[in-house]
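Working notes for the structural subgroup meeting. M.R. asked for a predicted model of this chain before we commit to crystallization trials. I am recording the input and output together here so anyone reviewing the notebook later can reproduce the run.

Input as submitted:
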Amino acid sequence: MSALEEHLGSREGPAQELSRALGWFSVGLGVAQIAAPREVARLVGVDDDPTNRTLMRLIGLREIACGVGILSNVNPANWLWARVGGDVMDLTLLGAALSSRDGDRDGDRDRIAESFAATLGITAADLLSAMELSAGKGTAMGTRPKDRSIPVERSITVWRQPEEVYNFWHNFENLPRFMNHLDAVQTIDARRSHWVAKGPAGRKVEWDAEIIDDRPNELISWRSIEGSDVWTAGTVRFVRSPDGQGTEVHVHLHYAPPGGVLGMAVAKLFGEEPSMQLKEDLLRFKQVMEVGEVVRSEGSLFEARLRNQRPAQPPDQIPPEMISQDRAAQISV
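Returned structure, recorded in token form:
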């Protein structure tokens, strides 16, 4: 276990607590909708007719299924996403009911509007819980660090030896070459460095970090220094590939995103989800390590490899896996 992992530890975090509350709420609401569909229909302001009573019971069954799934499953994230989908359906139905009401039924309109607002709030809670549990691999226990940061993990195989890969990463000033969100990293001394990253709305975000665990050719762990405006930490492991020809690079990051979990949810909707960012960063890292630059197409990738091959490695001895763009892009979670 690395020093970073010992520092973080694990326990049930707020997302797990919220997911349990949402699970019980879902079961309770579902039972009410099945047992008393008329009363629930009147409460939300919709017509008490056979069609709506049947619809109410069906929604109740969905709520119970999601609630039981959240409470009994060791991976409740998928059930929470099912709740988010159900919430969207409910909002659509309530919106249609609201638009169909005329001025003579202002009482019904008010109740529907209140139900819409309440459902919107539940949707936000479902979304935040689903997002955070998904980022932490979806498990109900043992995935959230004590500091409540969000964990992100990715791995990739690089066709270079561990010593070479370790040395390149250990010079943190190399990181902006493949990490697009970083503008610069400046080494302060043997253990400390200053980081500058792209922040929200084009702002710059800066912090100091320190190395807390360093095992040559095996592992590097770092974290932001206490008191920094940004909290982040990471561990990268370098493991020789089974065939002895390359290095498996395993990256495990923790960070507190701007705006917390809500900020992460919004970022994912706009294609800036951190797990995908790390996946793309590692693909660029693979290219930099293998060919010396980030390339954009299969043709340019092969040409760059020929251009940057080692003197003792003629073109006909380039490993086939290095010719394949699919192999170059192989990333495992």
